[in-house]
Structure to design on (301 residues):
């Protein structure tokens, strides 16, 4: 089986990203990407809502290094928020700060976020800042802190494979956090390398955040983790209104529906757009089972 490191290496290749659209659908990307247009993504969200699920939309994009690209991304985020409002869908917005210019100019990025959050506030919606690799972590949390001085409806994600995850969760008490295992290739200096250590820390930060009385978006396809969460909230008498489960579009769809039928809130992370390459490679890296999407796509041609 191809290794996690191999796919993470591929995810960072600008050349492959630039050429991916030629053969991407053959690799099975269409099974986990909700189309290339906003209209396609909205249709997907509508169907999920009809099944009792919530959604969060992510217009995929990476390697933004020009001001004009960042400003375009900000405008597109506003377009998404307006479309969600106009359609009356149960859906919020996820985005990456690098899309909004973090690698170009920090103030540009912050100003773009302020603009997006002002629109989100007017439309009564929520915005999630996706966490990226370790090199962007401190800047992301610093900007989040600035934004929350004037906006409550913004949160971020904390990655359990990082040693510092628990400390960050404690500092962010009261913030709506997406808690995840982590999807980047980080060094042993900053991150656990063994899956059992990541899993243990994942449950640790979930318990910590819930016991703080904070809202937790628990993002995992791992039924072992989900079963532990079910047991924990039952033991501690934690309301189902204080957390939700999140899964990625296209993965474990039957299990998603099962959790909804059991009365749990389920939100589906719905990525779309033409710049899908890096996202897709990280999904292949996360779990060996995901490689079947690529193989299935190739063998069907």
């Amino acid at each position: 089986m191809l290794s996690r490191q191999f796919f993470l290496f591929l995810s960072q290749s600008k050349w492959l990203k630039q050429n991916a659209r030629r053969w991407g659908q053959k690799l099975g990307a269409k099974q986990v990407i909700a189309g290339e247009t906003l209209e396609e993504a909205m249709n997907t969200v509508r169907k999920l809502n009809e099944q009792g699920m919530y959604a969060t939309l992510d217009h995929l994009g990476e390697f933004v290094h020009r001001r004009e690209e960042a400003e375009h991304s900000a405008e597109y985020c506003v377009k998404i928020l307006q479309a969600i409002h106009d359609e009356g869908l149960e859906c919020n917005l996820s985005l990456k700060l690098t899309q909004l210019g973090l690698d170009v100019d920090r103030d540009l990025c912050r100003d773009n976020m302020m603009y997006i959050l002002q629109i989100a506030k007017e439309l009564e919606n929520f915005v999630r800042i996706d966490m990226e690799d370790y090199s962007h972590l401190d800047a992301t949390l610093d900007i989040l802190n600035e934004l929350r001085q004037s906006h409550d409806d913004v949160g971020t994600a904390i990655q359990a494979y990082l040693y510092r995850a628990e400390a960050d969760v404690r500092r962010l008490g009261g913030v709506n956090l997406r808690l995840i295992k982590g999807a980047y290739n980080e060094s042993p200096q900053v991150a656990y390398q063994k899956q059992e250590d990541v899993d243990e820390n994942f449950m640790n930060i979930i318990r910590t955040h819930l016991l703080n009385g904070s809202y937790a978006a628990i993002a995992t396809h791992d039924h072992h983790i989900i079963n532990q969460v079910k047991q924990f909230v039952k033991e501690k008498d934690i309301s189902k209104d204080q957390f939700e489960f999140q899964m990625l579009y296209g993965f474990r769809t039957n299990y998603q529906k099962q959790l909804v039928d059991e009365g749990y809130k389920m939100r589906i992370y719905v990525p779309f757009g033409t710049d899908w390459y890096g996202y897709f490679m990280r999904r292949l890296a996360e779990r060996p089972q995901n490689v079947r999407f690529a193989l299935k796509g190739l063998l069907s041609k």
